[in-house]
Every structure is written in C-alpha cells, then in structure tokens.
Write a structure and sequence with these properties.
The complex is a heterodimer. Chain A is an all-alpha fold. Chain A has 12 helices and no strands. In chain A, helix 4 runs antiparallel to helix 5. Chain B folds into 3 domains: 144 residues, Fumarate Reductase Iron-sulfur Protein, Chain B, domain 2, CATH 1.10.1060; 170 residues, no CATH class; 135 residues. The chains are: A mainly alpha, B mainly alpha.
Chain lengths: 241, 509
C-alpha cells in the first residue's frame, strides 16, 4: 500500500511535470506569424505584463463577459490557490511563517472552493447554452474537483486523519524513502483523485492554465507599424522570390 | 429583397434560447473548379480528402501558435456563448463561438490528442466524416471573423483564427467558398475586387473630377498612376462607384486638395481589401499585400494612406509590415523590407489611416469646416469590428475609437453615441464581414444585423439619430442592403469622409 502510493505519486508527478513542460515547449516553439492582439491592446512590454496580470489574477475578460461565471470561477480559483498554498505545510519543514499564517484562511477557502465548483456545475447543468456545449469530460472534471474538495473538507471537519503521518509520508517521498501512510478511506480517496488530476493535467482542458500565457491575442504588443514582426517560415517565403 | 424578413427585436432582459439546426444548410455557394484552381487549390474534393485535411490541420497547428493554444485552452465556460451576432440573430447553437470552434476542436481532439484517440465520446471528439466537412463549410461561413468573442474569452481565444484555419483546410481539399475565392481571383487578374480595369478606373476618376467641379466650382483632382506623388491612396474598390462609398472618396480627395497634398491612386493596385485574410491563407494574404508594395515602389511615394475599410485596415495596420514591409522598424539586415522602408517617410506612421491623416491635418489647423452643412444630420458612429478589435490608430490604445469620432465632431454639430455595451471594443459586426457579403448568404446577413439594428432603433427613437457613420466598405454595403428590411432608410448610412466632404471649406490651392 505504502509502496503503491509512493509509485503512484512519483508517476503522477512525473506525468504532470514532463507533460506540462512538453506542452509549454510546444507552445513556445510554435511561431506566431502575424500580430493578432485583441485591440485596444498595450503598446509596451510593461503594458502587456499588466494586461496579462489582470487577466490571470482577476479574470478581466470573463468579468466583461458574465458576472455569474466570473464570480463563481474566480471564487473557485482564488480559493483553490489558497488551499494549495495551505498544503505546502506537508512538503516543507520547518513550515514557513506565512504558510502558518494562512492555515485558517486556507481551511475556509476549502469551503468557498466547493461553493464555487458547485455553482459552476449548476450553471453547466441548468443554463441551456452551457449544457449544450458541455462534454461528459467537462462534467467529470467538476465532479473530480468536487470530490477532492469534499474529501479534503471531510478530513478537516468530520473525520480527522493522522496529518503527522501524512506529512511523514510526503517528506519521505521527497527524500526517496517510503514512510507509512494512514489507511483511512477518505484519505486514500483524496490522494488517489489528486494523483489522477495531476496525471491528466497535461492532456486535458486544464491546459488553459499554461495556455493563457501563450495566447497571442493577450500577450502580443500592439506595435505592428513600428516594428517589423516576421516568423521564420514566413521569412522563408521572401527568400524564395 | 422581399424574400427576407427581419427577425423581431428581442425583449430585454435577454435569455437566448436555442434553435438547433436553424441554420443548417444555409451556408454559401461552393467555389467551382475554375475558381479553385486559379488560386492553386484543388478543383474538387479529391479521393484522399480525409487524409489531406488532417495533414493540413497538423501543418497549421505547427505554423500558428494561436490555433495550437486555442485548440487546447478552451474550458467550455460559456463566456462567449451569447456574444456572437450570428448566434443572437439565428439562435442556432452552432453559431455560439465555442460551439463553432468545437466543430474543429472535436476533430483536433480525435486525431491529435491522447484522450480523443482513446475515449472520443468522453471528450467530445469525432472522426472527420463527409458530414463533418459539410458542417464546417456551412458554419465556418457563418462567422464574420469579427473577434467579438475574443474580447470576452478568459484565454483570449479568437474564433476568427479558428474560422480561418477551417477555411484554409476546406480550400486545401477543394471545398472553397465561391464568393471569396472568385474575388481573390479578380484581384490577381485585374487589380481589384470588383474587376474594374485600369481604363475604366481612369474614366471614373475623370467623371468624379467633373462632378466635384460642378458641385463646388473647384478643380479637385483624382490622380491615378502619378509617379513621385507624396501619398499613395489605397482604398476599397467599392469607393470608386458604389453608393454611399463614393462620397467618402470625394471626401478624401477634398482633404488632399485642401491640404495641398500630392497624392495618387494606382491602377495596378486599386484595392485595399485583402480577402486572403478571410480564407486564412497566408500565401494569398501575402500575395495580395505585395501588390501594394509593388505600386509604392513603382510610384516612388513617401506615404501610404488607407481609405475607409474595416478588415483592410486590420490587414494594413497589423499585417502589412509583416507581409510586404509597408511600415517601419525593419532590421538593417532585412533587405526585403528595407528596400521599401528606405523610400518611406518615417516622420509619419506607415501606413496611415485616412482618419488619422484628416485628424492630423485638423489638429494642425490645415483644414476649415462649415459645420452647419451637416446640421441636417444627427449622427452616430458604428465601430467597425476589424478596426475596433484588430487594429488601432494614433499610436495609442483606443485611438481607433477616438480619432474617427474626433473627425466627426470637427465637421458636424450633432453627434450622439449608441448603447455603450455595443460600441468601442464591444461593437457588433454589421453582419456582412469576413467574406460573407454575398447574396447567397442574405438570410444570414439580415439575421446577423439584428443586434446592431436593435440598438440603432433605440438611438433613433430616443435621440433622433438619422445618420449612421461608418468607416468600412463592407459595413456600408451591408447596412444599405439590410437596413431597409428593418424599416430604415438606406440613405442613413454613410462614411465619415462623406461628412467631411459636406463640410469642408475648399480654397483654391
């Protein structure tokens, strides 16, 4: 069991890291032959950094699109960020001061994360347009995240698990030694699903996370008249003349 | 025209209902073999079309980061789902931007992703069948590449890029659109989209000189092929004879006259429009753009000014520097671009929009106006989609919104805005952009105009608007044709430089 989980987490981490890096490399290596920022767009690099920050931190475009989707989506993502940061305590020793500080916030963020997810799923189920565009995997992804959140919250508020042992297990993994993991059903479920999530990350729509940084409509400067922009394959056409 | 009826205005608040299949089989005519082959595309569907299409998709995924990222990043959040004017007008769910993209994305997933190969049903992946190909032809010609969806997408996914890729794949298997490809053929053969040959163009310009002389008593020139002129004007060919376009052309000529600017048209390159963008084909896009480079080199001009045209301005502003070197800032070692850029005068932005030119002259005090000449008009401005979301003016973000409005306010007293949720970056397409301005898509065009017509009606009722100013040849044609169906006078539509023309005071320089 312990060895099984150790292998599982090594494998999931490997798939996650290699998969995402591979994807990022593919995006980075694919040329953008034309300037296509959605205008009005910033004309300087600083402006682009600001635009991207607003997009990634506040979901600016989604805010313009639909307040409900924005509210629920932002609640979910911000909460998840807190929850993930809170989980840092399982991987570092001694635990950094700010990670200690956010522990209570991270705990309640688990609840708001669940709330956001349920809201998003309700939207997917009950708004005709969104139901039309949803694939089974869209629903399953939400179910997966909801069960992860629920199982985590259960361990927090209902059936505690031996968190010291859990930490021991993950600290062990980081030093390539296999330590015992508690065998509570809820914990096993939680960890299995998290490993699953990591494994499918690089081949699923979760790629929106790295993808947004490579989106030419958002990350390009609007300076086509001032600076000639040309990709290698387009340049090739010129030399063929 | 009686065959088409306008859909009813919607009641606010709006919850769009779906009518699946509403626009099935309403797509455009298919290009015949002559039209296709003239552009180097197969004349008809070859036996191995399936493999060719998939290979083409793979090629495009490797050439365009936009397509690659957009295929992966969508999470089906639905932010775009109620933003497309064609969805609003037709209620066909496949006209929701995300659903339109998914027509292509489903095939991408099947052939290029692991989950799609293993569990197609789970992730909405599907085989490329003849039915899917027909669906592409139908629905990717119900997108005007207006980019409104891309404003609202949290990942900036631009359906225009997806539509262009789909059309490029369709062309590569001999399944092109008649209107677009026929027009591209004309540009290559004759020099403009309308197939107006050089001698006819010269005749038309002489006629215009006489008309303006009769009107104003002043010799405003419409020069063509003048070597050594300072400005080369590249304008949509509709400006040469279509109503109301021609009134804007007269406006440009008057501005050049009043400011003492020497200018010329080119008979070889008498077209600003570039339908290569509509079909997403880089080679065509480039080939058409190169005509302008050639004309500029041949005539030895110092500046290139572009007339009122939406997507043409996007191509000119965003792509010309890349495609043909019309612009600034090429590397010293870039001989292709430097050859032209050495000739151009970089104190000015290259290329310059006619509104930038006129506004610049107004700011310098080089023009004077009799604003009362426009007092019969209560004017509003429709931001053309490709100008609003695919380009800029004035060298700062949002200049494309301010500068045309500044020009209008400088030449007229009565200017009002439409509902702000439908102007600036949120403007609606007129319903005829992106290579859809053809009679075989009239039903779609009328329905696609709905959201703009609703808001215009509001402006007419509440503010007494009687003039809709635009800076796009497609908007002008589309509105003149669809507005009567919505009960408006077609003469309500006109160019910004038509207003300039009405009010400008001509000395006799």
């Amino acid at each position: 069991m312990n060895a099984l989980f150790a292998v599982l987490f090594y494998l999931a981490t490997l798939l996650f890291v290699v998969g995402v890096l591979h994807r990022i490399r593919t995006y980075a290596a694919t040329p953008s032959p034309l300037k296509i920022p959605t205008t009005p767009a910033p004309t300087t690099t600083g402006g682009v950094v600001l635009r991207m920050t607003r997009e990634v931190v506040f979901f600016e475009s989604l805010f313009k699109a639909n307040l409900w989707t924005w509210g629920l989506g932002w609640l979910f993502h911000a909460s998840m960020a807190l929850v993930l940061l809170r989980h840092l305590r399982y991987f570092i020793e001694p635990v950094w001061g700010w990670v200690v500080f956010i522990q209570p916030f991270g705990m309640y963020a688990g609840l708001t994360m669940l709330l956001g997810l349920c809201g998003l799923w309700a939207r997917r189920l009950f708004v005709e347009r969104i139901r039309y565009i949803s694939t089974p995997s869209d629903h399953l992804m939400l179910v997966l995240l909801i069960v992860i959140a629920l199982s985590g919250l259960t361990m927090q508020f209902v059936a505690h698990t031996d968190v010291i042992a859990v930490k021991g297990f993950f600290q062990g993994l980081m030093h390539f030694s296999i330590q015992p993991l508690p065998t509570d059903f809820i914990l096993v479920l939680h960890l299995l699903l998290v490993a699953g999530l990591m494994a499918i990350f690089p081949i699923s729509k979760l790629l929106h996370a790295p993808g947004v940084f490579f989106s030419p409509t958002r990350n390009q400067k609007d300076d086509p008249r001032e600076k000639r922009h040309i990709s290698a394959w387009a340049k090739q056409l010129e030399s063929e003349n | 025209m009686a065959d088409f009826t306008a859909p009813a205005y919607r009641v606010i608040p709006i919850v769009p209902a779906l009518k699946p299949g509403a626009m099935e089989g309403k797509g455009p005519f298919v290009a015949n073999d002559k039209i296709q082959e003239a552009l180097g595309f197969p004349g008809a569907l070859p036996e191995d079309w399936h493999d060719r299409a998939i290979a083409k998709m793979g090629e495009l995924l490797g050439k365009y980061r936009s397509l690659k990222v957009f295929m992966d990043a969508c999470v089906h959040c639905g932010a775009c789902s109620d933003k497309c004017h064609y969805f609003i007008g037709t209620q066909d769910p496949k006209n929701m931007p995300v659903a339109r993209q998914d027509l292509l994305r489903s095939v991408y997933r099947r052939y290029f992703t692991l989950p799609g190969k293993l569990f197609p049903k789970l992730v909405g992946a599907r085989d490329l069948t003849r039915e899917v190909l027909d669906e592409w032809h139908n629905y990717f010609h119900q997108c005007s590449e207006c980019r409104r969806c891309s404003v609202f997408c949290p990942y900036g996914i631009d359906t225009a890029e997806v539509t262009m890729a789909a059309r490029e794949i369709l062309d590569s298997v001999g399944y092109g659109q008649k209107y677009d490809n026929e027009i591209i053929g004309k540009v290559h053969k004759i020099g403009n989209n309308l197939g107006l040959p050089g001698p006819a163009l010269i005749d038309t310009m002489e006629g215009l000189e006489e008309d303006v002389k009769e009107d104003t008593g002043i010799d405003v020139r419409f020069p063509i092929d003048v070597k050594g002129a300072e400005v080369l004007l590249i304008t949509p060919s509709a400006d040469f004879f279509a109503e109301p376009h021609i009134d804007s052309l007269i406006g440009y000529a008057k501005v050049f006259h009043a400011t003492g600017t020497s200018w010329t048209l080119s008979s070889m390159s008498s077209e600003a429009a570039n339908f290569g963008m509509f079909i997403g084909n880089y080679e065509q896009l480039r080939k058409i753009a190169l005509r302008i480079r050639e004309a500029a080199l041949e005539l030895g001009v110092k500046r290139i000014v572009v007339g009122e045209c939406g997507h043409a301005w996007r191509v000119a502003y965003s792509f010309w520097n890349t495609l043909s070197g019309v612009g600034s800032g090429a590397d010293e070692t870039d001989r292709f671009a430097q050859m032209l850029q050495k000739q151009l005068d970089h104190r000015y932005r290259q290329p310059t929009h006619i509104c930038e030119f006129t506004w610049g002259m107004i700011q310098q005090g080089a023009l004077s106006f009799n604003k009362e000449a426009n007092d019969k008009h209560i004017i509003t401005f429709h931001d053309s989609c490709n100008v609003a979301r695919g380009s800029s003016m004035g060298g700062y973000p949002g200049g494309q919104f301010d500068i045309p409005r500044n020009v209008i306010k400088a030449v007229a007293n009565n200017f009002v805005e439409m509902d702000p949720s439908t102007t600036h970056e949120r403007t609606f397409c007129c319903g005829g952009g992106g290579g859809l301005l053809t009679d075989d898509l009239m039903d779609l065009r009328v329905k696609g105009a709905l959201p703009r017509m609703e808001v215009l009606q509001q402006a007419v009722d509440q503010q007494g608007v009687n003039f809709l100013a635009v800076i796009c040849a497609i908007c002008k044609t589309q509105f003149s044709k669809t507005m009567p169906i919505y009960g408006f006078d077609r003469k309500m539509v006109g160019g910004v430089h038509q207003l300039v023309s009405n009010a400008i005071v001509l000395g006799d320089k």
